[in-house]
Design brief:
By secondary structure, the protein is an alpha+beta fold. It is 49% helix and 20% strand. The two termini are 20 Å apart.
C-alpha cells in the first residue's frame, strides 16, 4: 500500500449485498465480512504498484479505477472502469504458494472512490471456509490450464524444432555432399599430375626450364586464391579467346581447359608467357606442361570447394549451437544480433532464393539480459510467419535499434498485410489464419508470453499492404532471476 490518503468508514451489510460478488451471501456471512473487512475512501492516486507483495483484495463500491502494467519500459493502461463490484488486487491469494503472490499490475483511482477491502489472508480464509468445493475446482482449473498451456507450448517448440532439424539436415547435406565430390575429384587430379610429371621428366628439359615450370605452378596456385569475380558475359568472352588460343597451339580439347584457366583468373597473355618459356621444347612437352598447369588449377579449385563446404558445415553447426543455446545458462547477457543471425541461418532453407533478407543492425546496441533460447523461439515464429505471408517472394527486414532503456527488434515483411479484424486477434491462443494442419495458432501467443511475461518487454504489430512489422522491445537492464523463480503470470483483468 502507498502512503495515499484513505479513510475508513462504517460497513453496511446491506450495501455489500448490492455488490454482485456478495449478493447470494446470508446475513451471518455479510456480518462476518463487515467485521473482518473494511470500507475505505481513497483519494485519486496510486493504490498499489505492480510487483509489490499482494496484501489486499479490493472491491469497488463507487468511483473509478484503472489498472496498468509496465511493458517495454512504458506503463500501459489495461482497463478503466466505474462498474460497481469489480475487483482487483490479491484475488489469487486462495491459491497460496502455488502462484506468485505479488500484484500483477498497478491500480489507480481517478477520482474519490469507495472500496470494500479484505486483507489477503482473510480473503483466502473466507474462500476456503465458505467455498471449499469452488476452491478445489478453481485450483484444478488453474493447474490444468497451466499444464495444458505448458504442454501445448512444448509441442509447439518440438514442432518448430522438428521443422528446423529437417531444414538443417538438408543444409548440412549439401556442403557435405559437395565436399565428398570435391575430394573424389581431387584424388583424380593429383593422380593425373603425378602421371604428367612423370611424362615431363622423360622430356628434354633443361634444369632451368623445370625450375620455371615449378614457378609457374606456384604462380597458378596463388592466382586461384585471388581470381577476380567476372560477369557471365566477361567469363564467356575470355573462354572464347583462351579456347581459340589453345586450339591454334594444337592443344587437344583446349575448349574444355579454357574455363578452368578463366576461373583461376588467367588470360591469353599469361599463356603466351608460358609458351615463351617453353618455346625450345617439343610440342608434346608443351601440351603436357599446359595440362600439368591445368591439373594444378583444378586441384586448387577443388581444395577451395572443400574449404568452403567444410566452413559452411562449421557455420551451420555453430549456428545450431547458438540457436539451441546448448551448454549455456538459460538466463544470460547476449548480443541480440548473434541470436538473430543464428535464427536466420537455421531458417535459410525456408527463406529460399525468393526472399531477400535485409539486415539493418545497430551495432552500438548493448548486450541484452534475457532467456536466449526462448528469444530464438520468438524470432523463429516471427520470421516463419513473415515467410508464410510473402509466399516465398519478397523482402524480409530485420532491424535493431535502441529506444530509451530498451533494445528494439523489428521483423518486417512485404506481404499482403494483416486485415484489421485479424490484427486485433493475432496474439490470441489458437487463433490462426493458416489452413488446418499448417498452424496451431500458438506461435504468436507463445511469443507474447515469452516477451511480455518472461522478459517484461512488449510486442506489437503494425500492418498495411506491403509493410507488416512486428516490433519487440526488451529492457536493457534486468536482474537475473532466482533459480527457483516461476514464470510470470498472464496479464490480470479486472473481475
Amino acid at each position: 500500500m502507498t502512503d495515499q490518503t484513505h479513510t475508513e468508514m462504517a460497513c453496511d451489510p446491506a450495501e455489500l449485498r448490492s455488490l454482485f460478488l456478495f449478493e447470494r451471501l446470508d446475513e451471518d456471512q455479510l456480518r462476518w465480512l463487515c467485521a473482518d473487512g473494511r470500507i475505505e475512501l481513497l483519494e485519486p492516486g496510486l493504490v498499489f504498484r505492480e510487483g509489490d507483495p499482494a496484501t489486499c483484495f479490493y472491491v469497488l463500491i463507487d468511483g473509478e479505477l484503472r489498472l496498468t502494467k509496465v511493458s517495454g519500459g512504458m506503463e500501459i493502461e489495461l482497463n478503466r472502469t466505474d462498474q460497481r463490484g469489480v475487483y482487483a488486487g490479491a484475488w489469487t491469494s486462495y491459491l497460496g504458494d502455488k502462484v506468485d503472490q505479488n500484484y500483477p499490475s498497478s491500480m489507480y483511482v481517478t477520482r474519490e472512490s469507495r472500496f470494500f477491502v479484505l486483507d489477503a489472508g482473510t480473503f483466502s480464509r473466507m474462500m476456503h471456509e465458505w467455498f471449499p468445493m469452488a476452491v478445489h475446482l478453481l485450483e484444478g482449473a488453474f493447474n490444468g490450464n497451466r499444464n495444458t498451456s505448458q504442454r501445448l507450448a512444448e509441442r509447439e517448440r518440438l514442432q518448430a524444432l522438428g521443422s528446423l532439424s529437417a531444414g538443417l539436415t538438408h543444409e548440412l547435406n549439401n556442403p557435405a555432399a559437395a565436399a565428398v565430390r570435391a575430394t573424389s575429384g581431387l584424388r583424380e587430379r593429383v593422380a593425373g599430375m603425378r602421371h604428367k610429371l612423370a611424362m615431363m621428366a622423360q622430356g628434354k628439359f633443361q634444369p632451368e626450364v623445370l625450375v620455371t615450370l615449378v614457378r609457374l605452378q606456384e604462380e597458378a596456385a596463388a592466382q586461384v586464391a585471388k581470381a577476380p569475380d567476372l560477369t557471365p558475359m566477361e567469363a564467356a568472352d575470355r573462354e572464347d579467346a583462351l579456347g581459340e588460343w589453345l586450339e591454334d597451339h594444337e592443344i587437344a580439347d583446349g575448349w574444355n581447359l579454357a574455363p578452368n584457366f578463366v576461373q583461376a583468373g588467367f588470360d591469353v597473355d599469361w599463356l603466351e608467357g608460358v609458351r615463351g618459356t617453353l618455346e625450345d621444347c617439343p610440342g608434346q612437352v608443351f601440351e603436357g606442361a599446359i595440362r600439368w598447369l591445368n591439373y594444378t588449377i583444378e586441384t586448387e579449385l577443388l581444395m577451395n570447394e572443400i574449404g568452403d563446404s567444410t566452413a559452411r558445415i562449421s557455420t551451420l553447426v555453430n549456428a545450431a549451437k547458438q540457436y539451441s543455446q546448448m551448454d549455456r545458462a538459460p538466463f544470460q547477457v547476449v548480443d541480440i544480433h548473434e541470436l538473430l543471425d543464428s535464427t536466420l541461418v537455421m531458417l535459410s532453407r525456408k527463406l529460399g532464393d525468393g526472399i531477400h533478407v535485409e539486415k539493418i543492425y545497430d551495432r552500438t546496441l548493448p548486450p541484452v539480459p534475457c532467456y536466449a533460447a526462448e528469444l530464438n523461439q520468438v524470432w523463429t515464429n516471427l520470421i516463419d510467419n513473415a515467410c508464410y505471408a510473402m509466399n516465398g517472394a519478397g523482402t524480409l527486414t530485420v532491424r535493431t535499434y535502441r529506444e530509451n532503456d530498451c533494445a528494439v527488434v523489428e521483423i518486417g515483411d512485404t506481404g499482403p498485410g494483416i486485415p484489421d479484424d485479424v490484427r486485433r486477434r493475432v496474439f490470441e491462443p489458437f487463433f490462426t489464419t493458416k489452413p488446418v494442419g499448417e498452424g496451431t495458432g500458438l506461435g504468436l501467443d507463445i511469443s507474447f508470453r515469452i516477451v511480455v511475461n518472461k522478459h517484461d518487454g512488449d510486442i506489437r504489430v503494425e500492418s498495411e499492404p506491403g509493410d507488416t512489422r512486428f516490433t519487440v522491445r526488451l529492457p536493457l537492464t534486468r536482474q537475473a532471476p532466482e533459480p527457483d523463480q516461476v514464470d510470470a503470470s498472464p496479464l490480470e483483468n479486472v473481475g
